[in-house]
Amino acid sequence: MWHPGAQERRTALVQLCDHDTILLIQVSSMKRFPRKVLEVIESANIVKTGANILNDGEKLFRDFGIQARGLVELGVFAAKADDTFNSVYNREIVSLAKMVAMYLGKTLLKGKVRTSNWEANLSDKMVEYAANDCHCALMVYARLQEIAFQAGKTLDVSTYSRQVDPRSLKLKVPSLPTLPQRLDAPTRPPVPAYCIPEPPRPQQLRAYKLWHVDKMPLEQMCMTLRTGTRVEPLKESTVISYVIGALQADPRLPFNVAKLKSLVLMEASSWQRHRQWIASRE
Length: 282
Fold this sequence. Notes:
This is Ribonuclease H-like domain-containing protein. The chain has two domains: about 15-170, 2-Layer Sandwich (Nucleotidyltransferase, domain 5); about 200-280, no CATH class. It is elongated and about 70 Å long. Helices cover about 45% and strands about 5% of the residues. It is built from eleven helices and five strands, in the order ββαβαβααααβααααα. Helix 2 links the parallel strand 3 (about 50) and strand 4. The protein is mainly alpha-helical.
């Protein structure tokens, strides 16, 4: 169960639908974010709509490094499609429940199921809630399209769709505790403004070479980097950390940021661990 004030968790469920199908993808139970789902989310030609949809897109970037495109805020679209919308609401973001009431004449029930544990097995009520939430957004969008058509309006999706801009996001960096200053401490010589970094460890350099020079697939790297009598392959997160560690230890090592990002995104938890450093190199 989610509790107010709890630490933000990674996205557990992604909802997608069209007029024929509703997909509920529990990404928290998957080793990697589904490639086809990623392609849909990053496509500027496929509309993704909802209430506060850009916030959802930014969350996906923080969690998985996905740069969502084709995001259409329902309130923004309503203001362009329906002349009466601005007389009721003078803001861009309006809750989905209010949009459903205004354009579908129905009540969208939220209830306690909204704060359920979406990483667990989904109950029938959770499936119904998630599917209904996604479907309602599409139905409101379709209704607004009808209103625009009846009014003789031709709307260009490129003028009101948005995309996630990683440069505008402030990625949270854990802050170190502030130590109290001792006023009676003796004056110490200043710390030199330089330091000699430790060179990459042999295993880190080996991982870097396998990835950058040999272009070895991650799964094969996990097998190749085994040491001693170890039988099972290394964890993907461990191998990714080796590559990142080599690059951090020796800034002279060449690499392609886009390819590094693709490697990191192959293991779900690695993006959250290394995204701040990767973002600083873009």
